[in-house]
Write a structure and sequence with these properties.
There is one protein chain. With 258 residues, the protein is α/β, with parallel strands linked by helices. The protein has two domains: 137 residues, P-loop containing nucleotide triphosphate hydrolases (Rossmann fold, 3-Layer(aba) Sandwich); 89 residues, P-loop containing nucleotide triphosphate hydrolases (Rossmann fold). The chain is 40% helix and 23% strand. The strands form two sheets. The protein has a six-stranded mixed sheet, sandwiched between helices. It starts with a strand and ends with a helix.
């Protein structure tokens, strides 16, 4: 079964069409990348799929159910989680508490149990903390459990946001420029993390400008240009596509992943 389907999707902002009649599918268990020049509509597409924007036309299906226009919390409950291009970290919390926030969908807390501090609530809090700590360890942040979030290095913050997204237990993880601003070592850590997430059965869709990362990690690539599909296929197919080279990659970048 196809995990995600986008059918005839369009989005207008006033007189500007940011996404135009877009069709594509995302198969389960693979790493998909969306690339294109600045202003191509990549983040707009992410925002449409994750419910931050409502489309002007078309529809989106997840596991064959129509999710067009569903609210972000409802989509998260269905199994769609994301990170953001600009870090959305709670800097007044510890790193561990940031990840614990991602568990809210899977924590049952009735008003009565909170008021009376039932033992079940204490057990749920302990389970949430243990699960968040295990997630932090899995993304290489075990040394930062009690650290204030605003003291973490930039690359660690990127992985912290991914850990929080994983805490929602997604079937589809959408990463908006996970390596943006990272140095070579941090980018390699992000790449290894994405491969590990995919190996655990989570489908990954990422927007990314680092072509070495994209070409090396992607099972499938969708190329956007002015909100339209320019090309799609494997890394080799996209790298050899003359329209992609002309519009975005450039001759040097096209051979970088060879």
């Amino acid at each position: 079964m196809t995990l995600l389907k986008v059918e005839g999707l369009s989005k207008d902002f006033g007189g500007i069409r940011a996404i135009e009649d877009l069709w594509f599918t995302v198969e389960p268990g693979a790493i998909h990348s969306i690339i294109g020049p600045n202003g191509a509509g990549k983040t707009t597409l992410f925002n449409l799929i994750t419910g931050l924007y409502r489309p002007s036309a078309g529809r989106i299906l997840f596991e064959d159910a129509v999710i067009t226009g569903a609210r972000p919390h409802a989509l998260a409950a269905r199994g769609i989680s994301r990170s953001f291009q600009n870090l959305q970290i709670f800097h007044n919390m510890t790193a561990l508490e940031n990840v614990m926030v991602g568990h809210h969908l899977h924590t049952r807390r009735g008003l009565l149990s909170v008021l009376l501090r039932f033992p079940s609530l204490a057990r749920a809090d302990a389970d949430c903390r243990d699960s968040a700590a295990a997630l932090m360890d899995s993304v290489g942040l075990g040394a930062y459990l009690t650290a204030a979030a605003d003291t973490l290095p930039y690359g660690a913050l990127k992985r912290l946001e991914i850990a929080r997204a994983l805490a929602c237990k997604p079937k589809l993880l959408m990463l908006d420029e996970p390596a943006a601003g990272c140095n070579a070592r941090e980018t390699a850590e992000i790449e290894a993390l994405i491969r590990s997430i995919s190996a655990q059965g989570v489908t990954v869709v990422l927007v990314e400008h680092d072509m070495r990362l994209v070409m090396g990690i992607s099972d499938h690539i969708l190329v956007l240009d002015y909100g339209r599909k320019l090309a799609e296929g494997t890394a080799a197919e996209v790298r050899e596509n003359a329209d992609v080279v002309a519009a975005y990659l450039g001759a040097g970048a096209a051979t970088e992943g060879a």
